[in-house]
Fold this protein.
Amino acid sequence: MIRQLTINNIALIDHLDIEFQEGLTVLSGETGSGKSIIIDSLAFVLGDRADKTLIKYGQDYAEVTALFEVDPHSAVLSKLDEYGYGNDCEILIYRKMSTSGKNEIRIQGKTTTQAILKEVCAELVDIFGQGQHLALLNEKNQLSVLDAFCDFGGIDIQLKTELYPQLTAINKELKSFGGSDAERERLLDILKYQIDEIVATDLSEEEEDELLSMHKRMVNVEKISTALNQTVALLQGEQGASAQVSQSVNLLRSISNLEDGADELSERLLSVRLEIDDVADQLDSVLSATDFSPAEVDKMEGRLEKIRQLKRKYGGSVADVLKFLESAQKQYDNLLNSSERIEQLNAEKRKVVTQMYKLAQKKSAMRRDTAQKLAAQIMQELNDLGMRGTNFTVQFNDEPSYDEYSASPSADGFDKVEFLMSANVGEPLKPLSKVISGGEMSRFMLAVKNITALAEKIPTMVFDEIDTGISGNMAQMVANKLANVSTNKNDGYQCVVITHLPQIAAMADVNLYIRKYEKDGRTYTAVDVLTDYEQRAREVSRLMGSVGEHAIVNAKELLDWSANYKNNLKK
């Protein structure tokens, strides 16, 4: 059970330390004082979604710490041990969220994940909020409620961890072969078109590089042509480099009989002139190549556009397109030669689905048997809550044939259920959503939660305004039921309730009064433990809506009656 809850910087709460006891703890106070914020804080530390809007205005983080004490034989200890958190009967859980998005979760001081936190805390606390009324009216959720009472054991293990993964793998491979014959033919046509389109283009990475280089030259042809023409003129013009070198060669030869080194130098200059002439000839050839015809430009542009189209369709680069081609060819060949493998896979699929169908039948039989027991338990609980004469049953769909099931096999089986109820003797059974009132729904949910908690051995139950739509005698019956389940020492549980009803407040083992106060222009939430009899009487009187001495007298009578009722339960 929960022993302590510490809250920092959540909504109106600056700092709160709340200690919890065994039995029934009731939170009461004026509307808007922060009762539900405390439950939201508990839900947060237990693994609910981190809502940054809960962080107190002006703060950049919020944090909640919860201390639990569990029985040495609790199933949660083996789960903690499995995840490496030891098996101490005192469990410390811490969670922090910040406006920056940085979050922190710890179990027994060790960092953990939200998934593990939720898995562990599911064994510790069950919080019933007002939204669960509507959830239970939805037929899709009613099967989940029923399944919570079923122990499918090895059936679920075989269905969900063995057979269904096998079926998924088979379907995936069949899908790779195109599924049905018609789908396979369509896929073959698509693959053939894609393969032919790429092959016909005769792609190569080298060609693309050459085309891009040519395109670059075409774009800059005027600049290139000007530079080449000017270079040729400088080399071979009348006053160009070649003419100047030739003149230098002649001058050196004229003094060869006078200067010993003149012949050698003239020969070297002659070699330079020949090199200049050769460069000039090559520049003429390059210059000729820059003269692109319109037909050449169109051909080059068309080729580049085709390559761009293929890249858009099949990959970001020519290499990716060629890789796609290789994969498509392989898939095409596999499809052409897939008949034998498809036949083998379909045989395996029939075998797996047959096993699943048989297990689904067993699962359905267990559900139907559990549904009868659950209906009897719920009617007994409702009888205790003043709804005598209520009839309740779980209606199942007809069992599908193998062919019907095989069209859409599921690891959850084939059952669809609907909760039917009649709240009055002589009235026909109708869907829950059609016949149940707000007050009846509150009692119905309390009945379901009582059975769930006892079946799953959840030590702590939290009810956020379970009293919606009830008053008078019905309110007293709900208070009595909460006392019954929270007083039983053998299979009872710790119960935390937010209420506006005096009957439930008077039945509490611990009364917590939630109030707001102002300080330095800010509003805060505080919790007062009402340990004094007079304090409790005043709070019960306030919930009665009465004033004066007679109101206090009535409140004390209700407190005394409740104390006597609980004492009789303990005998």
Q: What stands out?
A: The longest helix spans residues 339-384.
